[in-house]
Design goal:
The complex is a heterodimer of chains A (about 220) and B (about 650).
Chain A (H helix, E strand, L loop, with lengths): L4 H14 L2 H5 L4 E11 L2 E2 L6 E5 L13 E3 L2 E3 L2 E5 L3 E5 L6 E5 L6 E6 L4 E5 L4 E7 L6 E7 L4 E3 L5 E7 L2 E8 L7 E7 L4 E10 L19
Chain B lengths: L2 H67 L1 H15 L9 H13 L5 H4 L3 E6 L4 E5 L13 H8 L5 E7 L3 H5 L10 E11 L2 E11 H6 L7 E5 L5 E3 L3 H9 L4 E5 L2 E11 L6 E10 H53 L17 H26 L5 H9 L7 E15 L1 H7 L2 H21 L2 E7 L2 E6 L8 H19 L5 E16 L6 E5 L1 H16 L3 E4 H7 L3 E10 L7 E9 L7 H18 L3 H14 L4 H15 L10 E2 L3
Parallel strand pairs in B: 14-16, 17-19
Antiparallel strand pairs in B: 1-2, 1-5, 3-4, 4-5, 6-7, 6-10, 8-9, 9-10, 11-13, 11-14, 12-13, 14-15, 16-18, 17-18
Helix pairs in contact in B: 1-9, 9-10, 13-14, 14-16, 17-18, 17-19, 18-19
Classes of the chains: A mainly beta (about 220), B alpha+beta (about 650).
Chain lengths: ~220, ~650
């Protein structure tokens, strides 16, 4: 159906071979360490679970298929980072129907209605932001960030992060949490075999709620 | 020749003249009307162009707003903006992605035909990349931000508005597919950016042929053109008229192929009404309009003229007979009026005027009434009144009612000094001549200041200010009139006469006082008497112009004056503070000796009142040194010296009791 689907299949097929790539990277790559400080409405907040990623170079996707599970009328996780070309599975863990869809230009799709235990898989061939909703439950929302490479990490409880295996060069490093409007960003220069320490970013969780519509472009709850 | 024959001849000649005048007048009226119509249609046309542009833009805004409600449109056009925040905007150079976004817009199956029916329509993303251009087939790609209008809309997150006037042949427009092959001349580019959270997300672009804006604006014979700043013009106005109109922002006339044209230009603004994007020129062939208006009127006019002439000759002989009688009556009445009898009137039967002559007779009667009224006003006041005062009284008859009202006014008394001796030394005729010249000039000056000359008492003049025409600044007017009065005496020169003036402001009764023919519009009251006393006080101080405290206060800053003394005037119980008016406002600034003597005088007066008599003498000496002819300084110096040897009794409050 989708014109890029064959391409995605090729990417999937190639995944096992590409999994060896980091081993080759070895000493030619660099590392970035840092911390993300999180505030909510100006006050310090939980710094764990912030997504940190870099852009500016491309890598083939890994072979695994992460899950975006529907459970208790929630998407889990609410923020998922993958690499362009990677697929995502959408298992339904609830005892009722869900209908997962996205209108985002980076990837428009509609998985249709499916019951408990069923799972659908979708490939995401192009970098971009994909806002995922359920056409039945208006409160369900998740964001899939389709990144150009595999160099992303999640902060620990103290907000610290490590990004390893970065090629040399100057890139933009982003830190993003779903409760923030926009990511924080900083320029980093990676040198081979070295570790860049003490990168600090700050994000404020005060996302303006943006009401969305169902897949037909109508308000939820309308006949 | 008998009057009847003359009338016949005159009436016929008049009829001829009337017809000729009518033709000339008619032509002038038509000419004026043609020009007025042109100007009117210009204003309307210019307004229509403005409104048309705004209406087009409003339509585009509506289309943009409505489209943007669609989540697909919103996410397709706005997605890249968000993606850019995340470093994930890979649309740049990604033709495949652009094609997909374009397809998404096509799939959204929005009906944008309203926006493209008269021109072209396109949607671009936040960078100006064209995602969708309404054409057959629809297309995409290209950077629309090279168009100033699009760059404007994207760069203005408050309004998201952009406009420009361009040639249809513009390469940029062609490359973006924003002009169709049938477009020529000039096009208007409208751009509307949808703004979300302070950032432009998508631009809706509409390109309209200039002729679309002009189609509705060509009213009547008016022709309209749009002119771009590079001189390229599109529309129906001849180039010569455009040249003439662009020179200045007014209605101008121009010669086009031997015909006179009117033309006007106005700036063409974008829908924000601020940015000027070009010029609108409206023009009209005035000669053609005039010819068209005149042609149908020519034959009827000629027929009417002939008929009038015939009727005039026929009617004139009949009319002449009937007219001679009332004319004779008018003649008799006019003679009576000439003889001074304003009671003469022409018999006028009741009802509407029978004819013009009858009307003339009534007008004559009305005129006589006016003359009588004017005469009555003048008789009532029996004195010189400025023409504007007479007009005021004619317009406000209540101002001259019998009885009186109590009002605050200013009254002025002036008296000639040494005139008695002059009168004795000269021949009576000479004395009368001098007096008449003096009174005439003084009356003129007083009237010029809005005052009313009340009466002449021998060589004295009494005038008041603030009635019958109410004047807020009557005190200032009185003081300035008094200064003029002094000037008159100075102008008369050569004659050994001087004048003393006293002015007071206060409540007095004003009205027509007296009975029947002896009635007189005058003022009475204690305030009047006080003014006369003040005039007399000049004698003691060697001054020419004294005013009371009340008048000084009321005159305010209109004059320069100094406090002179506190006195009990002869025959009065209460003390009054007198001031000497030195000149009009600013006089002291221009006359250092006066300023200096006035200062020392004030010091002396202060010292005298505080019983510092020797200090007072010193101060008055200083005043005299600055101005040896300072009369009051001399008088008060003598008083201070006297008090230095014979001090006044305890409890003396500085008031001077003036002897009779």
């Amino acid at each position: 159906m989708h014109p890029l689907l064959p391409l995605a299949l090729v990417a999937l097929a190639a995944a096992p071979a590409l999994a060896q790539a980091p081993a080759q990277a070895g000493t030619g790559t660099g590392t970035v360490r840092g911390r993300v400080r999180v505030t909510a409405e100006g006050k310090p907040a939980d710094a764990a679970g912030v997504l940190v990623y870099v852009t500016g170079f491309e890598e083939p996707p890994p072979g695994d298929i992460p899950e975006l599970r529907q459970r208790g009328r929630q998407f889990q996780p609410a923020l998922l980072a993958i690499t362009a070309g990677q697929s995502v599975a959408f298992p339904n863990g609830d005892a009722f129907f869900h209908n997962v869809f996205s209108l985002s230009p980076a990837r428009r799709f509609d998985l249709g209605q499916f019951r408990e235990g069923e799972s659908k898989v979708k490939v995401f061939p192009r970098p971009g932001i994909v806002e995922v909703y359920c056409n039945i439950h208006p409160d369900m929302a998740a964001t899939i960030l389709v990144l150009p490479n595999r160099r992303h990490a999640t902060t620990g409880p103290d907000g610290s992060f490590v990004l390893e295996g970065l090629p040399p060069g100057t890139f933009t490093l982003f830190a993003y949490h779903r409760l923030a409007d926009r990511p924080a960003k900083i320029e980093v220069t990676v040198e081979p075999g070295k570790t860049l320490e003490g990168i600090e970013l700050e994000i404020d969780e005060r996302r303006t709620p943006t009401p969305h519509r169902n897949k037909y472009g109508d308000s939820y709850g309308r006949p | 020749m008998k009057i009847r024959g003359k009338l016949l001849l005159a009436l016929s000649a008049l009829a001829l003249l009337a017809v000729a005048g009518m033709a000339a007048g008619g032509y002038a009226v038509l000419h004026a009307r043609a020009e007025a119509q042109a100007r009117e249609s210009f204003a309307a046309s210019l307004a229509i162009v403005d409104r048309a542009l705004v209406a087009r833009y409003r339509l585009l805004t509506q289309i943009a707003n409505l489209s943007y409600v669609d989540p697909v449109i919103r996410s397709v056009t706005g997605g890249a903006t968000d993606a850019a925040d995340f470093g994930l905007d890979t649309t740049e150079g990604d033709a495949e992605n652009l094609r997909e976004l374009h397809q998404n817009l096509v799939d959204a199956s929005w009906d944008w035909s309203a926006a493209s029916s008269e021109g072209t329509f396109a949607i671009a993303d936040y960078k100006g990349r064209v995602l969708y251009a309404h054409a057959a087939p629809s297309r995409w790609g290209g950077d629309a931000s090279v168009l100033p209008a699009v760059a404007q809309a994207l760069g203005d997150p408050r309004q998201g508005t952009g406009t420009m006037l361009a040639r249809a042949a513009d390469e940029r427009l062609r490359a973006l597919g924003l002009v169709s092959d049938d477009m020529g001349g000039l096009v208007v580019v409208l751009a509307r950016a949808e703004v979300l959270r302070g950032r432009p997300r998508a631009v809706f672009i509409q390109v309209l042929p200039a002729e679309r804006l002009l189609a509705d604006a060509a009213l009547g014979r008016a022709r309209v053109s749009l002119v771009a700043d590079d001189g390229e013009a599109d529309g129906a106005v001849p180039p010569a008229a455009i040249e003439a109109a662009r020179a200045r922002m007014a209605v101008v006339s121009a010669r086009v192929d031997g015909s006179t044209w009117l033309a006007q230009s106005a700036p063409l603004h974008g829908p924000d009404r601020e940015r000027r994007i070009g010029t609108v020129v409206v023009a009209q062939d005035l000669d053609a309009a005039l010819a068209e208006m005149t042609r149908p009127a020519l034959l009827p006019l000629a027929l009417v003229a002939l008929a009038l002439l015939g009727l005039a000759v026929l009617g004139a002989s009949m009319l002449a007979r009937r007219m001679t009688r009332p004319i004779e009556a008018l003649d008799v009445a006019a003679r009576l009026v000439a003889g001074g009898d304003l009671g003469a009137a022409v018999p006028a039967p009741a009802g509407a005027p029978r004819d013009e002559i009858d009307g003339l007779g009534r007008s004559f009667n009305t005129m006589l009434e006016g003359l009588r009224e004017r005469e009555r006003v003048k008789t009532t006041f029996k004195k010189y009144l400025a023409p504007d005062v007479v007009d005021y009284l004619l317009a406000h008859p209540e101002a001259q009612e019998l009885g009186g009202t109590r009002r605050e006014l200013t009254v002025m008394f002036s008296d000639l000094v040494h005139f008695t001796s002059l009168a004795e030394a000269r021949a009576p005729e000479e004395v009368v001549t001098i007096l008449n010249r003096y009174f005439t000039r003084v009356s003129e000056r007083i009237a010029a200041r809005g005052g009313t000359v009340d009466k002449y008492i021998g060589d004295a003049v009494m005038a008041f200010f603030g009635a019958p025409v109410p004047r807020q600044d009557h005190a200032a007017r009185a003081c300035l009139a008094a200064l003029d009065h002094l000037a008159v005496v100075d102008e008369l020169g050569g004659e050994p006469i001087a004048v003393r003036i006293g002015i007071n402001t206060g409540e007095m009764i004003v009205g027509n006082i007296g009975g029947g023919a002896a009635q007189d519009y005058t003022v009475i009251g204690d305030a009047v008497n006080l003014a006369q006393r003040v005039e007399g006080a000049n004698r003691e101080y060697g001054t020419r112009l004294l005013v009371t405290d009340a008048a000084r206060l009321a005159a305010g800053s209109a004059i320069d004056a100094r406090e002179l003394d506190r006195v009990i005037l002869p025959g009065r119980a209460r003390a009054v503070v007198l001031h000497e008016v030195l000149g009009p406002a600013g006089f002291l600034d221009g006359s250092p000796p006066h300023r200096e003597s006035a200062q020392h005088y004030a010091e002396g007066l202060e010292a005298l009142r505080a019983r510092g008599f020797l200090a007072a003498v010193t101060a008055f000496d200083a005043a005299l040194a600055a101005r040896p002819d300072d009369g009051p300084a001399r008088v008060l110096r003598a008083r201070a010296e006297r008090f230095a040897t014979t001090p006044p009794p305890e409890g003396w409050d500085g008031t001077h009791r003036m002897a009779k």
